[in-house]
């Protein structure tokens, strides 16, 4: 069955009643399943947003440590521009022992507040390795500004692996796609000599 047919069938048969099941599925979902879940939630719109926020509040008030589902909820809700999240996000930092949660929370803050101070905080994770660095690189693309793109361009110039460079290039491309004038920042940066042509090709 095609992805679109799966989404349509769930919406027609369950509607908003599917949301509790979708939330339960988040905990052990792979990237493909999570993408399907978010597509369904997106179609359900405001009804889903209200239910998800209420579920977030319940989990936040329980104050369970390292609640993975709560991270999925803020990811979805921040994509839906749920401003009600804002007072809770910074306080969430105290509920996680796994540092991989921090770039996810900061990414949600960037989406909702558009405050560049969170770019500076995210940049501190660029010197980490593995998942934390990857999450920080992707999160910086959420707010395309001169500051965020220059953090990535500077990191690109360091002695890093090909896979790290590829991930940075992907985030830079996403930034320029959202805000084309940032290409000028690439061209005047020392990294521009190496990546300008690649970016032009990627953006065609």
Descriptive terms for the model:
single chain, 204 residues, mainly alpha
Task: Give a short overview.
The chain has 204 residues and is an all-alpha fold. 71% of the residues lie in helices and 0% in strands.
Spans of at least 5 consecutive residues with low confidence: none
Task: Tell the overall outline.
Answer: globular
- The Rg value, from CA coordinates, equals 18 Å
What portion of the residues fall into strands of 2 or more residues? Answer: under 5%
Overall number of strands: 0
Average pLDDT reading: 91
* Count of alpha/pi helices: 13
What percent of residues adopt helix (DSSP H or I)? over 70%
Elements, N to C (H/E): HHHHHHHHHHHHH
Give your account of this protein's structure.
Helix content is 71%, strand content 0%. The longest helix is centred in the N-terminal third of the chain and has 17 residues, at 46-62. The protein is globular. Helix 5 runs parallel beside helix 7 and helix 9 (131-140) runs parallel beside helix 11 (162-178). The chain starts with a helix and ends with a helix. The chain has a domain at 1-79. The chain is mainly α.
Summarize the helices and strands and which ones pair or pack.
Layout: H1 3-13, H2 19-26, H3 31-44, H4 46-62, H5 68-79, H6 86-92, H7 101-113, H8 117-123, H9 131-140, H10 146-156, H11 162-178, H12 183-188, H13 192-202
Helix pairs in contact: 1-3, 2-3, 4-5, 5-7, 6-7, 7-8, 7-9, 9-11, 10-11
